[in-house]
UniProtKB/TrEMBL annotation:
SMART domains linked to this entry: SMI1_KNR4
One Pfam family recorded for the sequence: SMI1_KNR4
Species for this entry: Melghirimyces algeriensis
The organism's taxonomic lineage, starting at the top: Bacteria, Bacillati, Bacillota, Bacilli, Bacillales
Domain Knr4/Smi1-like: residue ranges: 9-136
Name of the molecule in the record: SMI1-KNR4 cell-wall
InterPro entries linked: Knr4/Smi1-like_dom, Knr4/Smi1-like_sf
Length: 162
């Protein structure tokens, strides 16, 4: 798996400031990745956990001010509905969040917060483990080819009927 790179590396003083405000230390494996890939997506980006299949990891939250997926802004937006010591670090395309769960330890586990049901599901124990869980769904190439064929047929049918 691979993370897309951000043109602007995360500012380490902003990261330390956020850690201080939250009273936590982000895991070292996460910090290694987020420095250059904050606000970016992994490839592949599909994951299974807790009985849920083919969930999408949209992107890491960014440390850039003004970014729509900014970590601090996201945290402030959901802090009253998330349990204390559950800190978002990633999102999916549907408004759900991947979070560090510090409730039991200073070494957080990874959890998924499904916002519509206000439900938290454990994903895995570490950020490194999370990275190893991403995969490309089988059959995706066939589905793309099928859609392209249908589009070509529609174009041909539209052209032939003129």
């Amino acid at each position: 798996m691979e993370w897309r790179k951000n043109e602007t590396p995360a500012n380490s003083s902003i990261i330390r400031d956020i850690e201080q405000k939250l009273g936590i230390c982000f895991p070292a494996d996460y910090l290694q990745v987020v420095k250059d890939s904050h606000g970016k997506q992994p490839t592949p980006n599909v994951i299974d956990f807790g009985g849920l299949q083919e969930k999408v990891f949209g992107s890491l939250l960014s440390f850039e001010e003004g970014c729509p997926v900014n970590l601090w802004f996201t945290y402030k937006s959901v802090k009253d509905v998330l349990p204390k010591k559950v800190i978002p670090f990633g999102c999916d395309p549907f408004g759900n969040l991947y979070c560090f769960d510090y409730r039991k330890s200073e070494d957080p586990t990874i959890v998924y917060w499904y916002h519509e049901a206000d439900r938290i599901t454990k994903v895995c124990d570490t950020f490194t483990e999370l990275e190893g869980m991403f995969y490309e769904p089988e059959g995706i190439e066939e589905e793309v080819e099928k859609v392209l064929r249908l589009m070509e047929e529609n174009e041909k049918n539209n052209f032939d009927s003129k």
